[in-house]
């Protein structure tokens, strides 16, 4: 969930009484994506599979895209790399990991979320919260590098983070995720050169 | 048209006999977008308005997204700025111009094209050709700067171009096109710093 606080506000008393239902809905959605793919994913199909009423689903998820985003977020593993003392390596590792991860079914789901956000304001709002939170995470990498003196203190860490996020989204959206050997390092090197003191 | 050569191959003899039909279809599509917006845009609606048969439309455009892309491309004005001797200014001008242009109806159309490309392979193929052609255009700005010694000769101009294109697409797709004063210059400055000798 991009912003759990939002989600809590959306929950009715009824919903609070049966959190298991929410879990059952997410699991049903995951199963449909796994077995049938994103094209077969709809609120109707998830309701049938979860044996839940559509109003119960709509209580938490106003649309197909918002439910897809939560399933994507829930399934996504934590990034493998912890903090290091090498910003270029951290960014290269992130680009390499995401480009591999998105070449699987997760990428098919996330590109559907971005597509839905172009016509569904609720999905757009939650995707923007999610993207903002991810940019903050990348921004922290850049702030740590700034504290080490690797990055000029005039740099806006969130703008640097946006350049990383933008490039990898663009690769996903234009079917260009397959990287040549050393390509992630080359991209990271050019990005980091722009941040150096 | 992202790639006129492709288009010519797709044209049947019949189509070559009546190029006016193609023009009538594009104009009908433009009128629907202008008067009713992207949500009302469909091959059916365009066929009705152009008094053309759907098979005639499908002869050139296999899907809604491919027709939307051609209408977007056809309406888009040439960039206002010619070559200068200041790469940072050229990139800032491009970002400023596109962020303004995309805050109008053209941005609504282009984000629909990107959304369609996530589920429509024909649209994905033509969008990729179009995006490649636009990156080449930005890459030429960077090559000219390289020839002036503004950019390191180790830089990959197309990677630099992709960073510009990625960032502005990302702003469009996350409803963040409205720039603060000086923001385009700040973005361009950080991008160009990464390219300097």
From TrEMBL, chains A, B:
The keyword GTP-binding does not apply. Keywords: DNA-binding, Transcription, Transcription regulation. Residues 19-79 form the HTH tetR-type domain. Gene3D superfamilies: Homeodomain-like (1.10.10.60), Tetracycline Repressor, domain 2 (1.10.357.10). Residues 42-61 bind DNA. PROSITE patterns: HTH_TETR_2 (PS50977). SUPFAM superfamilies: Homeodomain-like, Tetracyclin repressor-like, C-terminal domain. This is TetR/AcrR family transcriptional regulator.
